[in-house]
Automatic annotation (TrEMBL):
One of its GO terms (molecular function) is phosphatidylinositol-3,4,5-trisphosphate 3-phosphatase activity. The keyword Hydrolase applies. Its EC number is 3.1.3.67. This is phosphatidylinositol-3,4,5-trisphosphate 3-phosphatase. It comes from Saccharomycopsis crataegensis.
């Protein structure tokens, strides 16, 4: 066993890999999910040091594909970060659907990727697709689970369990980031919609319509540190239309908005509520003077720098949600939102359900709030 093979084994230790039918000296981190779908970590072309020592060798990967599936394979690349190979090195047999690492895809892109895969596979029963992101875990798993839900007619939890069993070592979860799991739930909702409603959701997004108005964000705190708006950092993001590029919509640092946001009349009035009997200890409410117009895919990021406690950055987390699906969850038992008398929807999320560092459950420092509520209107 060479140093390279040892490094590759360690790099893919959490994944289940296929035995090599053609090579005994270079192990590939590649897993078979269905008879026509494979998942692997990022392949690297020769000369890309030091990555070539521990990641999938592109040359070995192409040998594998040509040996087992000659002229009937397609690579689906989900990386937004630069790939370590060129399209010409895989003979043009690649499609790109990039979106950020540790994030869910824009919902319209999510559906598009799943349909692209199905269209390619349905033309020939011997065809296969190889899906990869960076580690071949979260982003790849999100897409695979969407495919399983739509064409194998199973639920989000079952799809994730199946993917985890095929891709991950025992006890590990394939799609583990809360926001990606949330989007699997949205996809399951979408598969149960009627065709006309599906067309409505997709058509409005493809047409570039800003379907949401965000009116405010409530940060609700019950901790002993007494959250101060001057220490709190909040930002609102969405995706550029149906592309996987994130766009900053609004931000506040230390309770104050930047000059650009004020010029756009998107500054917020910061309100702080005191202790209420049997209720939250502290509520910081960003009430926007003018609503924020966003796509339905919205990300909220929160951080806090509390110099009084000498802890530096003591909390940082974020989450994605889709306004249309959260609004329509009210009709189901998986209700996570409510409707105000004004007709606005309130999406509520607990701190434990947010995404930590790099999408993990790791959040530096102390927990400074109990939950966040987003007040919005969605068509």
């Amino acid at each position: 066993m060479t140093i390279t093979s040892i490094l590759r084994t360690l790099h893919s230790i959490q994944n289940q890999s296929l035995p090599q039918a053609f090579s005994s000296y270079n192990q590939l981190d590649i897993s078979q999910i269905t008879s026509q779908i494979l998942v692997c970590s990022e392949p690297v072309s020769t000369g890309k040091l030091p990555s070539i020592w521990y990641k999938n060798s592109l040359n070995e990967l192409i040998k594998y594909l040509n040996f087992n599936h000659p002229n009937k394979w397609l690579i689906v690349n989900l990386q937004q970060e630069p790939s370590q190979y060129e399209d010409c090195q895989v003979f043009g047999n690649v499609v790109h659907h990039p979106f950020p690492d540790h994030q869910p895809p824009p919902f319209v892109m999510f559906v598009k990727i799943v349909k692209t895969i199905h269209r390619y596979l349905s033309e020939d029963g011997d065809r296969i697709v190889l899906i990869h992101c960076k580690a071949g875990k979260g982003r790849s798993g999100t897409v695979v689970c969407g495919y399983l839900m739509n064409y194998y007619h199973i639920g989000a939890d079952e799809a994730n369990r199946y993917y985890s069993a095929k891709r991950m070592r025992w006890g590990m979860t394939g799609v583990s980031i809360h926001s990606q799991q949330r989007y699997l739930g949205y996809f399951e909702q979408w598969t149960k919609m009627g065709k006309l409603e599906q067309i409505k959701v997709m058509g409005n997004a493809v047409a570039g319509k800003k379907m949401m108005k965000v009116y405010g964000i409530r940060v609700i705190d019950r901790s002993f540190l007494e959250l101060d708006p001057k220490d709190l950092r909040v930002s609102v993001w969405d995706y550029y239309d149906t592309r996987g590029e994130m766009r900053l919509v609004w931000k506040a640092e230390g309770g104050y908005q930047g000059e650009q946001q004020q010029q756009q009349q998107q500054a917020a009035r910061v309100e702080r509520c005191g202790v209420t009997e049997g209720g939250p200890k502290n509520v910081v409410y960003y009430r926007f003077k003018q609503p924020l117009y966003t796509n339905c895919d919205v990300r909220i990021v929160l951080g806090n720098r509390n110099a009084r406690w000498g802890l530096g950055l003591v909390d940082h987390c974020g989450f994605w949600f889709h306004g249309y699906f959260e609004k329509n969850k009210e009709k189901t038992k998986t209700k996570t939102s409510t409707t105000e008398s004004s007709g606005n929807t309130v999406f509520s999320i607990a701190h434990r359900e947010t995404d930590g560092y790099c999408g993990s459950g790791i959040r530096p420092g102390l927990q400074l709030f109990e939950r966040v509520e987003v007040v919005y209107y969605c068509k």
